Structures
1.
Amino acid sequence: MLKNLFSLEGRIALVTGGSRGIGKMIAAGFLESGARVYISSRKADVCDATAAALATDGRECISVPKDISTVDGCRALAEEISRREGKLDILVNNAGAAWAAPFDEFPEHGWDKVMNLNVKSPFFLTQALHSALKAAASHDRPAKVINIASIDGIRLNLLETYSYHASKAALIYLTQRMAARLVADRILVNAIAPGPFASDMNRAARDHANEVAARTPLRRIGRDEDMAGAAIYLASRAGDYVVGETIAVDGGIAYANLTPGPS
């Protein structure tokens, strides 16, 4: 019964923001579990280089660079995937942005950039790929959508990232609403809320890992396999009865921390 429970053999996945950071961690995990993985990001050269680096040992990692900060960009990416495959088993909405500025100086363009990419794009990309996801889904093997939220959507940190906090909280609730609609199509929507993982977006974890680890109940920052493992769980048969959930992968910061602090 447990054989191949976490296998993604024969599955087709798309990871947005897959050229670096958390997206790259997830893409690498999916490839190792047997999926054919498309990665997308705004910068074509970076996306191409990451896909080439991940496509080892016969694994298929394909670069499809697109700017999905607009609805037109989301539709263009969906059309490219549908043209190449006709169906999609797994969508990871990972592409995101952050912005920090003092309250009295916080700019409208910083608000709009973050809200558009972190909330609007996951919705409209999933909408654009609805037919491809339905084509892959069945009663015994549902399709999967995984939204990458943040523990900053669950609890506050000390940084003045107003639109980021708002966007990630919104994405968690959007995940639930999308899950309620798409479960009828055998498309399961869930989310992951990462804590401190070393990346360009989380430079504190990248550049000051020991200090960040000291504020984490588990006393370390996240490893690549921590993120890959959570995503593989949701994407594989192991997660086939999980719907509308947000899993915090954060070493205990959100739910087991007696001294809250910035991630």
Note: The chain has a mean pLDDT of 94.
2.
Amino acid sequence: MAQSNEGDIAQRIAPNSNRPLRNKSSRFSTSGKNQKAEIEFVGRSPLLTSILETVEAIAARKCPVVVTGETGVGKEMVARQIHNASDRSEGVFVPVDCTTLTGQLFESQLFGHVRGAFTGAVDTTLGFFRAADGGTIFLDEISEIPLELQAKLLRVLQEGAVTPLGSTKSYPIDIRVLCATNTDLCKMLKEGTFRADLYYRLNVVNLEVPPLRQRKEDILPLAKYFLVNQSTFYDEPPKVLSPTAKKLLLNYAWPGNVRELANAMERAYVLTTGREIQPSVLPFEVIIADSTSYPKHELQTLDEVKRKIITQTLEFTKGRKIAAAKILGIERRSLNRLIDKLDISLAQMKKKAGT
């Protein structure tokens, strides 16, 4: 779900993307004066389609939404899409990383403070909630807010008003609250680490973003999207994945989800000198994850797989160990130890390359 942006979940997890890749498979976009760029989701999986339908159904509502899913699936991108498809799209979208909020800093950053409220408070500040007035606030990793501070957040949500730290004056706010977490809030509820009243206040709609391994139809469209972004960024002709490289991508579990795929495609792009991206420039873990990519009559040992990969990489670099180490993502000393341990002949490779 992604952005062809996110390829389905990729909206611009591609930091170098200057323009969207239009993919007619599944696309949902909105417009708004405050929107910096059109948001699209790239992909063709049924799960992606279901997410887009849910986003479209809830966007016009004011109810809170909790977006759940593993790290890297694109939860913030989904939240931004909800905002941009709503009647608040011309208002601001304020993302807040709750992992950074503790103690006094929690109240100050969320609700603001008046001058002199505490040591170092030399100026009056607005706070995230008042800054988001008329728009949307996105509380990322809501599960990380300490239990003792959850009550203060609940009070603001119930009253629809904020009292800055050190002040007695209350300021009404009109905001929509979207949250995200990769933690099981129900489990935290049972363990007593998350307030039940806050949970039921926030969890009106729960939108789960599935991991990339469950949306294999979206992997190649996403990969293509990221490669196009790279070619646009570097102003170069596009590069394409070889058939074997595509197979490796499809057979990898992608524990880091779309973010990991984006990084893998950036790495593959910059390490490829020609037009076609070969397996040797993919991350090591992607290459070794699929033993079926290599001809065999029986299962190979890990050393056999390592030997094959290192040999292929050294052949690709014509025996240059520094270049091979960079492609493999390891130090040259580690590569030297592996070459000795696995009895890999560099002389034969250099002879083949004519060097």
Note: The longest helix spans residues 219-234.
